[in-house]
Recover the amino acids of this structure.
């Protein structure tokens, strides 16, 4: 399933990826089905966020699963890795998630749509 999980290590690579996106997929409607998905999209719409920060924002320890479900709906969420040192002094790759800039407007519409459904349609 790695083909759905772009691994980007810098902003320049994101720009290359943006230019290679098929315009047909850029037009598809994006959906949000849960508050966890809502909070995640809202958070990564603002900026790239590290996974450990998203745990608190999303309200779940399984942030990669939430991302996986959104990707299955057509969301282009990039994984950005950067080397960091853990508390034992070991060099490890820390992951962050970033929403593809080409989907910012669709994301805002999906967030608004979910909020309307939640307030008036009985979503939980």
């Amino acid at each position: 399933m790695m083909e759905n999980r772009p691994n980007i290590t810098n902003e320049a690579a994101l720009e290359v990826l943006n230019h290679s996106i098929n315009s047909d997929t850029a037009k598809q409607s994006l959906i949000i089905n849960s508050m966890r998905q809502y909070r995640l999209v809202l958070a990564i719409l603002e900026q790239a966020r590290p996974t450990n920060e998203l745990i608190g924002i999303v309200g779940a320890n399984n942030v990669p699963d939430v991302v996986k479900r959104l990707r299955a709906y057509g969301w282009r969420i990039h994984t950005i890795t950067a080397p960091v040192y853990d508390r034992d002094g070991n060099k490890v790759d820390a992951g962050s998630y970033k929403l593809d800039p080409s989907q910012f407007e669709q994301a805002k519409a999906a967030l608004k749509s979910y909020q309307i459904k939640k307030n008036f349609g009985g979503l939980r």
About this structure: The two ends are 30 Å apart (CA to CA). Residues 2-10+31-110 form a domain with the Arc Repressor Mutant, subunit A fold (CATH 1.10.10.10).
